[in-house]
Design a protein that fits this description.
By secondary structure, the chain is of the alpha+beta class. Helix content is 39%, strand content 18%. It has two domains: 109 residues, 3-Layer(aba) Sandwich (Rossmann fold), CATH 3.40.50; 96 residues, Winged helix-like DNA-binding domain superfamily/Winged helix DNA-binding domain (Arc Repressor Mutant, subunit A), CATH 1.10.10. The chain has a five-stranded antiparallel beta sheet, with helices on one face. A three-stranded parallel beta sheet has the order 1-2-3, sandwiched between helices. Strand 4 and strand 5 form a beta hairpin. The structure holds calcium ion. Calcium ion (CA) binds next to loops.
């Protein structure tokens, strides 16, 4: 947990410990970056308003080497800052003031998303391969670094390769109940994914938007390399 204000830090520390979480507390961005490197937490709760290195830059710093789920805490109305935080690699945000119940639910959801799982399946395209068993995407340059949320979105679309996955399905699967109207999350994360995987992000070849309906991962079978079917579900 990264929070510079003492009362909030105490409240969160006590609240999380009471639910059985093991909590390490950092009071600045510098301390947070150092602590994550040493402690390898399962999830980072990151206040955006910090002295020195602010929360957005902490998220950017973590994302250069870590896939740890990041939940940011932000002041009400700071819409641009929230978007900047999501663009920097944060996975979710909670607006202050919030209830402990809400934060706990977001933590559980973040932990579920970063959980390993999935069968031995591959989706192979001319530009990248999604390995659902290894939980990674590889392109010509090597492994593509995805945040847990970006990966989860890719994973859900890959499991339904060729099919339309509705916005409601994706929001429920990835963020859980209460996010039915959060289509802007999908737009933000889909843009990030296209940036990383599409040969021409502005003209998506694989990750298609069906306006007002949902998204589809379309792999043109004819363009898959020989011997690499679009989906291989054999062991
Ligand atoms: Ca603060």
């Amino acid at each position: 947990m990264v929070e510079d204000e003492l009362p909030m830090r105490r409240t969160l520390d006590i609240g999380l410990r009471a639910r059985g979480y093991d909590v390490d507390v950092a009071a600045s961005g510098e301390e947070a970056l150092d602590m994550v490197r040493r402690q390898h937490p399962d999830v980072v709760i990151l206040d955006l308003g910090l002295p020195g290195i602010d929360g957005v830059r902490v998220a950017q710093g973590l994302r250069t080497w870590s896939n740890v789920p990041i939940i940011v805490l932000s002041a009400r109305g700071a819409e641009a800052v929230k978007v900047a935080a999501l663009d920097s690699g944060a996975d979710d945000y909670v607006t202050k003031p919030f209830g402990m119940g809400e934060l706990l639910a977001r933590i559980r959801a973040a932990l579920r998303r970063s959980d390993t799982g999935g069968g031995p399946t591959m989706v192979t395209t001319e530009h990248f391969t999604i390995d659902l068993a290894a939980q990674r995407v590889v392109n010509q340059q090597g492994e593509v670094r995805l945040s847990p949320t970006q990966w989860h979105l890719v994973e859900v679309l890959a499991r339904h390769q060729g099919q339309l996955v509705t916005q409601q399905q994706l929001l429920a699967e990835i963020w859980g109940p209460g996010y039915e109207n959060a289509a802007h999350y999908l737009r933000v994360f889909m843009a990030q994914i296209r940036q990383k995987l599409e040969p021409s992000p502005a003209r998506p070849r694989y990750f298609h938007t069906e306006p007002g309906r949902g998204y589809r991962l379309q792999v043109d079978e004819a363009e898959s390399p020989p011997g690499s079917p679009g989906v291989d579900s054999s062991p």
